[in-house]
Write a structure and sequence with these properties.
The chain is α/β, with parallel strands linked by helices and 234 residues long. The chain folds into two domains: 3-81 and 214-233, NAD(P)-binding Rossmann-like Domain (Rossmann fold, 3-Layer(aba) Sandwich), CATH 3.40.50.720; 83-206, no CATH class. Helices cover 41% and strands 17% of the residues. The protein has helices at residues 11-22, 62-72, 101-104, 107-123, 134-159, 168-174, 180-193, 216-220, and strands spanning 3-7, 26-30, 42-45, 48-51, 76-80, 83-87, 90-94, 208-212, 232-233. The strands form four sheets. A three-stranded parallel beta sheet has the order 1-2-9, covered by helices on one side. Strands 3-4 form a two-stranded antiparallel ribbon. α4 packs across α5 and α5 (134-159) packs across α6. The two termini are 20 Å apart.
């Protein structure tokens, strides 16, 4: 047995501590905040539990699911996604089916986005775009209008920094389609034939996910002794 210190009580730190404690080591997690969980933490207010963000587990890895079941037992839930995004002063279904685009979005906005996307597609046949940031990666594929009205504000809110300072790989890994045409083709394939061609785990068509009853708080309420299901917190 060894005594091991882990700095940071986020999901990664807690997972490492759990595995080490399960193997018989004495583990101490050092966390500067009052609560563990990091960006996936939760808080209570008037008997309600709130997440700091959407903390569902999207995975098809059987080993990870087994670990979650071992840790959480009956607190591991399977939920069906029913999502909407507030956009242009209205709640828009997510994912947005192709036949709902005109019905749920302003007609002039759809026309402007379509014009830009078609122009970018034609331009790409003779010109190589520079994808040196998140902003340019998105604008080069979806147009300035869609970037300014949706991707830009959303990304700035989520990450807290200017999207032009984010690496383009952030966009390519988080956005599961490369263009509006790609999205329409894959969505039509799904709605017409039931085929999910989005290869990313962040597929907008993935309609089920795992969730922890009570958020991260439910994990913290469990036993925290060495060698058990949780580790120390200091």
């Amino acid at each position: 047995m060894q005594r091991i210190a882990i700095i940071g009580g986020g999901i990664t730190g807690l997972t490492c501590a759990y595995r080490l404690a399960r193997d018989g080591h004495e583990v101490t997690v050092y966390e500067r905040n009052a609560e563990t969980g990091g960006l996936a933490s939760s808080f209570e207010n008037n008997d309600f539990v709130f997440d700091y963000g959407p903390h569902e587990f999207c995975t098809d890895n059987p080993e990870l699911v087994e670990v979650l079941q071992e840790l959480l037992g009956e607190d591991l839930l399977v939920r069906h996604k029913n999502a909407a995004q507030y956009f242009q002063n209205a709640f828009i279904n997510y994912p947005l089916a192709p036949h709902e685009i005109v019905r749920q979005l302003p007609t002039m906005l759809v026309a402007r986005i379509a014009r830009e996307v078609i122009w970018l597609r034609l331009k790409s046949t003779v010109y190589t775009f520079s994808d040196h940031s998140f902003e340019h990666w998105v604008a080069n594929r979806f147009g300035e209008t869609l970037y300014r009205t949706y991707f830009g504000p959303y990304t700035r809110k989520v990450w807290g920094i200017d999207p032009d300072k984010l690496d383009p790989s952030t966009a390519s890994s988080r956005i599961s389609f490369n263009s509006i045409f790609d999205y329409l083709l894959k969505s039509l394939s799904y709605y017409l034939f039931g085929k999910n061609d989005f290869s990313s785990i962040h597929s907008p068509l993935k309609d089920t996910f795992y969730y922890t009853r009570g958020g991260i708080l439910s994990c913290r309420r469990k036993d925290c002794s060495p060698g058990s299901r949780k580790c120390y917190q200091q």
